[in-house]
Amino acid sequence: MSLPGSGIQGHSDDQPSDTDPGSAEGRDAAEALRERKRSGGGLVDVFGADEQSDVAVETPRWVGLATSILEAEGVREDVEVSLLFVDETAMAELNQRFLGRTGSTDVLAFPIDDDVYEGPRSADSLGPGPTADPDLADLPTILGDVVVCPAVAQRNAPAHAGTYDDELALLVTHGVLHLLGFDHAQPDEAEKMEQREQALLDRFHRL
Known about the structure:
Structural class: alpha/beta
Number of helices: 6
Mean pLDDT: 76
Order of helices and strands: HEHEHEEEHHH
Strand order of the largest sheet: 1-2-5-3-4
Strand content: 5-15%
Radius of gyration: 18 Å
Low-confidence stretches: 4-30, 32-40, 120-137
Oligomer: single chain
Shape: globular
């Protein structure tokens, strides 16, 4: 999965790369996915990629947090989300390209069919057509991408969440909630989003 025109690629740390979809193993996996969908059990797949080397990131841990948030928010369909960690140069390029703003920021959310959202520390159904391939109906829904800059998170942490670890947890939570439709453009929306963030952090991060 990639951001629209950004060239930044995401991948799943746990995604097998050597399974041929046409092989018996590949066909069995595809059938298992279809059966799970038919039985009402959706899959939540978060693809994580650490594209920077400035600050250490435990990618699997944050992928797990994002997955827990999606499931806690009632996501039951097959969905895919990319969680990308980038350096300040890459984040500044995204900030300029999509928001027209100079400099890096801590988190950006790219809903697949909506506007780009900034993080809290920066300036703030129709079915398939009659000719559609039936297998395409089994493809997961792409919610979008969350892009986090660990270097900015580390710099902002003392005046914000407190620790680098808590700051990353907040930014991942914030970005995923944006993909699910939360916003903070208005005071009442911001209050609702912050309350939900804190509830999710208490449940999945501050253990």
